[in-house]
Recover the amino acids of this structure.
């Protein structure tokens, strides 16, 4: 408030001074009579003094009005939020005279906003758009010198020192009585300091379709298993599971498309999903992906384009959940994704997945603690690789002929989270990924590897997080590596509700 | 064409106090399910998929509102695909609407802790607020099930009569302790203490939702001595150990209470009985602390 008032005063003075200057000049040119000039100056001084007094009076009046609007000037409003005694002057149980939705809360807080206060977007239900920003920072190091190959996720820390894993903004809200909209835009800093922008999701979703149906369209993360549809800040570990990175891609499987889901009218929860999405690009790793011009499984792959309906990705999923006891919940699902790949003219990819989540939460939890959650996913990919002739030295002689073959890759991760006391979670994750024998045998993207990752997370509140994680990596053909990462996260704005 | 899908109204309530009020008003014309357990922290209920199945067939959803359920209800409601209970439809009751809530923050700033922008959501520990919510439930249910309007009105009338007569008993029972300070773990009892002339201004949490720190607790002990506060109220999911440590230092007693019917062993699932037990608990611990 103070700076605003100062600026207000300054501007006035400036106008007056300028005005004074020009008047003075004008008169000086007209007459050189010294006496007349002195009289004029005195007159102007008086005018100026009068103007100053008038303005001061106006400023004082305005100040009084502002004070009156704030309530009594002695009450510091910031302290009153925590003090019940101030608000307690309102008698309980009195209904709002017009009894309209929550208008009482709004008017009473709006009234107390002062000109110097920052402008804020309201809480849930107070604005048309809920906005949030999540910043995730990692610091650490590894014995591996090829961190790019070691860490498979697009948002994983991949350099020694500091990494801004993501600054993710989420915009969400009701569009109208028929649709809900959401957009997630993530900013990232690469190792050369360049800022990258990623449109992770941007979709609308129906909220009142009949027949237990729900329709979603736009750019979205495919509902394949448990991990793929989630954003990095909700993960229980610093990095992405290996099998996800290999089979669904560093940034997960996501592309523009449409999805229909049906809540099956069973006594327990069960839901059927079918997504149809574009198959090209780097967010469809196992499909029409050019792999940034690099070979994939020894072959050159091309992005291609969608020619027919069959060139799209079809991703069905069935999920169901049971209450084992009052405090234990089980959720399991089967997922698949089918589509063309870029290694040949008519080559296709099939990915299958199954997931199981079990969670126990204390019937007397405070702030959500204590709890135990166990989540496991198993994935398998059948990649039909086209025949390819390789000429390494570009001398026109074929050095190696890769046949058309079916490459089978699989892997799983299993993670346990134990929220042992309020704000503290101990985690343990095991990763395994492997591929079958193939003509191109030197493939690090398919070689067997496993990883064990214990971690400890501390949530000072649900809006911040500190996490320490150790990764023990064992890669066939490469060896063992140790990495340690410290992760720091903050959330501003609307906190999205927790999904199961 | 009957509005309800099952003959009887299928009513989903978020918390057990609301479920108790709904039971009192809707009686046999409704089947009532409650999502949160009476013993758990209502701010952090797990968004179990089974809740989606329940919400999917609900004719009426009754939530506390004022952001009490904002951490878990939203996505469940979206996934439920039930336009009967969608926000803004007549089958969706947000009980806080139209109530004058206390502690509406002047500024929204999370450095003040877990601030609820619409005010303190634990208003149902004030029986008169309970009556208003019961009235609102009866009105909404009559809109959804017009044939039951007379039935609901009748039940509401007897609930009102009972509550109003009980109100006199409760007020009289707590009258001797007027002006006394009660310490709470979280700011849960504000509406109750105000209604019955007690004071609740000291909390073991330094800020709403922020776990107690040693410095803050030492401060609380000093203030308790200065204000002659001798009762610390703890809910089932809050740390009784912390409360007992403070109580020992401040020469106070720990009172185990719940804002939810059925939240403690031996506590009835009925709303008026819960207030009965709440009043009895406060009376006995305030009396106990007065005669050392």
């Amino acid at each position: 408030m103070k700076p605003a008032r100062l600026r207000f005063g300054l501007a006035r003075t400036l106008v007056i001074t300028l005005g004074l200057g020009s008047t003075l000049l004008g008169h000086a040119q007209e007459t050189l009579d010294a006496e007349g000039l002195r009289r004029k100056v005195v007159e102007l001084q008086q005018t100026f003094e009068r103007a100053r007094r008038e303005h001061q009076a106006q400023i004082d009046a305005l100040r009084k009005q502002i004070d009156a609007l704030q309530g009594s000037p002695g009450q510091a409003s910031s302290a009153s939020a925590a003090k019940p005694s101030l608000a307690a002057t309102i008698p309980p149980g009195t209904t709002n005279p017009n009894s309209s939705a929550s208008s009482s809360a709004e008017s009473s807080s709006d009234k107390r906003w002062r000109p110097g206060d920052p402008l804020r977007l309201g809480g849930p239900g107070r604005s048309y758009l809920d906005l949030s920003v999540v910043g995730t920072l990692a610091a650490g190091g590894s014995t591996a010198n090829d961190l790019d190959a070691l860490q498979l996720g697009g948002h994983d820390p991949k350099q020694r020192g500091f990494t801004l894993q993501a600054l993710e903004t989420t915009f969400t809200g009701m569009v109208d009585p028929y649709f809900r909209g959401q957009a997630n835009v993530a900013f990232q800093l690469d190792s050369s300091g360049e800022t990258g922008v990623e449109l992770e999701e941007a979709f609308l979703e129906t909220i009142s379709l009949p027949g237990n149906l729900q329709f979603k369209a736009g750019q979205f993360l495919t509902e394949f298993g448990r991990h793929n549809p989630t954003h990095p800040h909700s993960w229980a570990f610093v990095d992405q599971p290996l099998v996800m990175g290999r089979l669904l891609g560093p940034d997960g499987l996501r592309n523009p498309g449409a999805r229909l889901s049906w809540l099956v009218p069973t006594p327990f929860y069960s839901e059927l999903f079918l997504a149809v999405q574009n198959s090209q690009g780097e967010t469809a790793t196992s499909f029409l992906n050019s792999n940034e011009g690099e070979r994939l499984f020894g072959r050159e792959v091309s992005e291609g384009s969608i020619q027919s309906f069959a060139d799209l990705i079809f991703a069905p999923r069935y999920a169901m959940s049971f209450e084992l006891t009052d405090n234990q919940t089980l959720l399991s699902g089967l997922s698949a994704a089918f589509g063309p790949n870029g290694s040949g003219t008519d080559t296709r990819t099939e990915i299958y997945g199954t997931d199981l989540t079990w969670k126990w939460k204390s019937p007397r939890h405070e702030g959500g603690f204590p709890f135990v959650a166990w989540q496991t996913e198993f994935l398998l990919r059948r990649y039909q690789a086209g025949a390819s002739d390789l000429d390494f030295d570009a001398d026109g002689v074929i050095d190696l002929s890769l046949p058309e073959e079916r490459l089978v890759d699989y892997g799983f991760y299993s993670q346990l989270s134990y929220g042992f006391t309020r704000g503290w979670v101990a985690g343990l994750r095991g990763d395994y990924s492997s591929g079958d024998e193939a003509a191109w045998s030197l493939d690090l993207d398919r070689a067997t590897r496993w990883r064990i990752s214990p971690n400890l997370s501390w949530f000072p509140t649900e809006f911040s997080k500190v996490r320490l994680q150790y990764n023990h990596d064992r890669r066939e053909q490469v060896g063992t590596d140790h990495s340690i990462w410290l992760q720091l996260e903050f959330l501003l704005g609307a906190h999205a509700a927790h999904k199961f | 064409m009957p509005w309800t899908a099952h003959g009887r109204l299928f009513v989903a309530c978020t918390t057990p106090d609301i479920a108790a009020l709904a039971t009192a008003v809707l009686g046999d014309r409704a089947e009532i399910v409650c999502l949160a357990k009476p013993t758990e922290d209502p701010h952090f209920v797990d968004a179990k998929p089974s809740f989606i199945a329940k919400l999917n067939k609900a004719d009426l959803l009754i939530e506390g509102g004022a952001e009490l359920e904002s951490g878990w209800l939203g996505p469940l409601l979206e996934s439920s695909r039930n336009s009967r209970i969608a926000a803004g439809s007549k089958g969706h009751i947000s009980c806080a609407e139209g109530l004058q809530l206390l502690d509406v923050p002047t500024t929204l700033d999370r450095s003040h802790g877990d601030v609820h922008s619409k005010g303190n959501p634990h208003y149902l520990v004030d029986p008169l607020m309970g009556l208003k919510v019961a009235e609102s439930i009866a009105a909404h249910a009559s809109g959804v099930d017009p044939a039951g309007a007379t039935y609901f009105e009748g039940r509401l009338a007897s609930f009102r009569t009972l509550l109003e007569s009980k109100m006199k008993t409760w007020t009289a029972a707590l009258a001797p302790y007027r002006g006394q300070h009660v310490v709470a773990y979280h700011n849960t009892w504000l509406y109750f203490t105000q209604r019955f002339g007690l004071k609740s201004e000291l909390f073991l949490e330094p800020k709403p939702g922020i776990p107690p720190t040693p410095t803050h607790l030492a401060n609380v002990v000093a203030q308790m001595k200065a204000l002659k506060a001798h009762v610390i109220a703890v809910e089932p999911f809050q740390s009784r150990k912390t409360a007992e440590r403070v109580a020992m230092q401040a020469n106070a007693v720990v009172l185990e209470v719940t804002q939810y019917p059925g939240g403690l062993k031996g506590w009835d699932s009925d709303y008026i009985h819960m207030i009965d037990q709440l009043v009895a608990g406060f009376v006995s611990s305030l009396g106990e602390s007065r005669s050392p």
The mean pLDDT of chain B is 92.
